[in-house]
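step: validate -> pass
step: tokenize input -> pass
step: predict -> running
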Amino acid sequence: MNAPAIRLGLRENAAQFSLLVIVNAFVGAMVGMERSILPAIAEQEFHLVARSAILSFILVFGLTKAVSNYVAGRLSDRYGRRSVLIGGWLVAAPVPFMLMWAPDWNWVLAANVLLGISQGLTWSTTVIMKIDLVGPKSRGLAMGLNEFAGYAAVAAGAWATGWLAATYGLRPEPFYLGVGFVAIGLGLSVFAVRETKHFAAHETSLAGRVDDDHPTQREVFWRTTFKDRNLSSISQAGLVNNLNDGMAWGIFPLFFAGAGLGLDQIGLLAALYPATWGLTQLLTGAWSDRVGRKWLIASGMWVQAFGIAVVILSSGTLGFAAGAVLLGVGTAMVYPTLLAAIGDVARPSWRATAVGVYRFWRDLGYAVGALIAGIVADAFGLSGAMWVVAGLTFVSGCVVAIRMREQRGRVA
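step: predict -> pass
step: emit ->
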């Protein structure tokens, strides 16, 4: 019996694409379960005082996720996407149990090492698989749908764990959710997800040429990091974007608590930013397919910087919410557009590796953000750390505006 013909496109592969969107929602929910309550656990249960110590969980998460992203891209090119996805879920399985039973802060750090590895393997492969399926015409829309699912789930997880913590206590009840997330995500990946690597090869054949560009892993790394002006602009913007996200993850709950807000209010605000980010990506991803990538990325970085400034200058819930919404809108302008831009430039034969390198630098931003925010907050306070991050975000947008060239519509 002949194998079914390969067809690229979102509509042509709607069932498998939708399944991957659902899987990525559970990937995002795993991060969301930490987002509103882990700083409170650090202060109240483990009595950590220094901001740099409290933010250490984001530092180890960012470092391990960055390396895992890089490895995931290369492994996906070499061995296929599906096996990497399943491996990522297996790594995540112990995480909720470690967080609910951790006897000291080192157990929390170890759990975040595993969470970082898992997130790199699972989120990277769902991104790569969607790019494989849709082809060159709808990359922005595809990435908008992917990141919408992931970050809407981050928001839902943050709100749910904040509510559970306010109702039942910080541990163990909020982390019961994580057990369910792993079980469903792993089950879908094993029994329903299909391999998509052959779609990338088909895209190359449709271009009407033999793809003779087969750079080594080292060459792809340096091309994506420094040599290619578009790929390097994308990589630095991704790093700074997650630098400010790491700051928001670790500093915002402490800043809101300092303003007298309770855990339920902090959970709602912690959810508002990724919820806005996730929902708005449904528009911005497709928008980038029409208007281009460059100026959406640059202006999105500037909107993020303004949103952080609004949070700093506010003194109550309404102002905090306005700043969180602006930060979410700016991030939505940037996040799916950066991934689509990678697909515009990188050839199908090494695109997964390039995505891995980009996501390495992007998620290293979590570690850089935690390190900078922790050190500056200990020296100059929470507001000082937030101003530094806002300034770096604004400058990153300027780098994109000056250095990046528009590549939308180019067949890689």
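step: describe -> The chain has a mean pLDDT of 86.
step: cleanup -> pass
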